[in-house]
Amino acid sequence: MPDNLQLDQFLCFSIYSAEHTFNEFYRPLLAELGLTYPQYLVMVSLWSRDDRTVREIGAELSLESNTLTPLLKRLEALGLVSRTRDAKDERQVRIRLTEKGRQLKKRAEPVPACVADALGLSGEELEDLRQKLLLVQQRLKETMEKQG
Amino acid sequence: MPDNLQLDQFLCFSIYSAEHTFNEFYRPLLAELGLTYPQYLVMVSLWSRDDRTVREIGAELSLESNTLTPLLKRLEALGLVSRTRDAKDERQVRIRLTEKGRQLKKRAEPVPACVADALGLSGEELEDLRQKLLLVQQRLKETMEKQG
DNA sequence: TGCGATTAAATCGTGTGCGATATATCTTGT
DNA sequence: ACAAGATATATCGCACACGATTTAATCGCA
């Protein structure tokens, strides 16, 4: 009798598993920068646009304050960012790169090329895969909204 | 000047993000079964093949004992599995479904259809996406082996 | 046979990730 | 101006995830 409950038929498991492999691949690269993968994502976000609120960074990464606050405190402890209440709206905390945080970007520049080399996929193939994953996310989110 | 450090150009971020969305989608479905997503994966693995060692389950899910042991103890506390030292090789712990664990399979059967409905992708599209993610993983692992 | 190497789980510490809740600040309607 | 609601961040508790180490059992080979 066929069994539809097989791990290797689950798209979600492919994604779960690929996520772990990516993490494993990044770990030694990011260890040289003294960062974890989520910390790296926050730094990438800030290198693109500095001086953002916790809320804005969270919107980009789909993370909330319960995850970001401790993570940002660690980046602050590493001397990479500053956390200061916004004078105009004291509810908000503005995250800004320190000079050390900006300097780190130079050392992080080669990382994407490392990954691209390992993957050995063309720009079109990468873009196609990203688009399909985005579609998957959109479909899941639509269904969640419909069902409350 | 172009900036190659942009989150939305990172395949790894697409995967990281899609993983979170899948988790969010699964959470309410699995909450009805009283399981987290990784616990569900272990149960799916056991429903396919029962009576396995921690090592074997870990090989299938790419998890090690430091993650699996506490997780399996939680499944044991829920009454879904038993954990017993193998009489032939006392180093190994054999994980077996309890009757309650086997019963749970029935309630879990509809879950994959829920996901398939939400995704709205054909079998070929799903298979293609799984294959591409598998290729990505293989490439990353090959590179890691080459570089030690 | 016996002892060092290997193997299987478990344990420990740290860092996410997230539901639930708390706290402080701002906004809105009257 | 002020209370009610909304918003931004922080805190708490629990469950992964994983590097590093520990403990116990088995294996391999001189």
**Tally of helical runs of chain A:** 7
The largest contact between protein chains, plus residue counts on each side, is: A-B, 57 and 57 residues
Q: Cα distance, first to last residue of chain A?
A: 35 Å
What is the overall pLDDT average of chain A? 94
Question: What this model shows, in words?
Answer:
The structure is a homodimer of 148-residue chains. With 148 residues, chain A is mainly α. Chain A is 66% helix and 8% strand. Chain A is built from seven helices and three strands, in the order ααβααββααα. Chain A has a three-stranded antiparallel β-sheet. In chain A, a hairpin with a 7-residue loop joins strand 2 and strand 3. The longest helix of chain A has 24 residues. The mean pLDDT of chain A is 94. At the A-B interface, helix 1, helix 2, helix 6 and helix 7 of A face helix 1, helix 2, helix 6 and helix 7 of B. Chain A binds a DNA duplex (30 and 30 nucleotides) through helix 1, helix 2 and helix 4.
